[in-house]
Amino acid sequence: MAEPDCDYVVVGSGAGGGTVAARLAEAGMRVVVLEAGGDPRAESTRLPADYDVPAFHTFASENPAIAWDFFVRHYADRAQQQCDPKLTPAGILYPRAGALGGCTAHNAMILMRPHDADWDGIADLTADQSWRAPAMRQYWQRLESCRHRPIWRALARLGIDPTGHGWNGWLTAERALPREAMDDHALLRTVLRSAVAAMAHTRRPWTSFLRLLDTAADPNDVRNAGAAGVDVWYTPLSTKDHVRMGTRERLLAVAARYPDRLRISLNSLANRIVLDDANRAIGVDYLKGESLYRAGRQGSQKGTPERIHARREVIVAGGAFNSPQLLMLSGVGPAAELSAHGIAQRLDLPGVGRNLQDRYEIGVVNRLRRPWRALKGARFAPGDGLYEAWAKQRSGMYISNGAALAATLSSSPGRDPPDLFCMALLARFNGYFPGYSQQIAAHHNYLTWAILKAHTGNRAGVVSLRSADPRDPPQVDFHYFCQGEAEDLGAVIAAIRFVRNLGAGIGELIEQEEEPGAHLTDDAQLAQYVRDRAWGHHASCSCAIGPREQGGVLDSAFQVHGTTGLRIVDASIFPRIPGFFIAGAIYMAAEKAADVILSAARASAAIIA
Description:
FAD/NAD(P)-binding domain, globular
């Protein structure tokens, strides 16, 4: 075996891989990060604006310099699939990013803690008590920082922590409350009336209102843990001084401090994990070159083959689509799948690529009688007045991701934690399709209530190989509503009725409900609408933690069953999809993974000594 190039090779630089790599380097380990894309702030004429400006996140997701456009299937049934107007000949657009920072380079930046039940479920499944919610809270404290906020810095000097979750994290979470929103009376009326109407739905409206005041509508405040019923929130954004912040910034900062420990290899597409005769991961084969992956709009080149060796471990963090793909390309996965593509089997692991899960999302889209005053002059491009306000003063509507208000609720009485997230967007948004970002830029007279169904019941999704060529994206089949159909459909229908009720309070502003349309009223009509139009963007669970005999791929220490020195740390690891927004859960899991990996390294050193 060749001399190792580093202690750890990390494949992928997103919320999982970037977080782990930075922590390992800070602890003194030599780490190489392989990232298939380039630096998102240096890749095109519209970047870095698309990357930096919170309001431009939809354009980042369609920027050809960083966009990885997966086209997926929602249904095996062709007739049902054809009902979705977002369908293209290749399938339904599912935006991903090939860039330093992974999907933190184009996401909507919403940073929310997962529910305690998400962690307790893993602990119950694995009998590993380190996954219990009380033990996992330290990782949120290690992650989130509020130190940049001037008023909170002043409070910190007095020993006061208004958030209850610490000051020492590396990822800032900000509120985006533009003054211009307060000047738009229609917008202000929408927010206030919707908030009052939402709180009126709870069993204890005054208790909800007092908690809203006490916690400043922060869903990440520890005092809101376990809050049930209907509650109103702002959406915290992972920005610093109202500029996008993610693992790109984390990695670059650590690499600058420790250039001898952390090396970032951009434009490096992993194509195989190198396993020795005992199934120990000892390195990674990859292709060096720009725009190699065919999910990218420029992908066509072959690349230069290279190999890197790891002294300790290989950590895969490619995400819910690419991590199972890389395992299967390496001979680890369902035997029949590998055989079908002529891949030599190293380990028959049937759970690889199975158990794929996602949210169900739907939009209640309202056309307004007049444009939002707060968006006057918005062209969503450098040079317009709103951009100048953001660039010079970090103010104006572009500090926001477009969300004016959010509410959480339970789809049925007593359901805890809540399973529905409803978010008011100042945009026309009805899912993902080529050109969807331009639709948002073109219309300033829309209010969309975006509904997310958390903790969905369907576990039937599959990621499978399209070919043995590592440049080809895998086939992704979500198999919508194959499991848990009645509960999930009922929940989304309940949310549609809920946001329609909120809209009734501002009826004088609404010209027409375009989608689903006021003519769709009974449960059967709304259920068919949801089947036809639902989408998702939180793919997860395709290399799940759990017992191998139950379809699990990883043990509770993130290690791939049947191997040594091979771990996965990304959205694919969860047995069940966590709620509500997956980035926070991945960050927390990655912070835990760093502890687990360093503990294993110390144990190994002690044995050798």
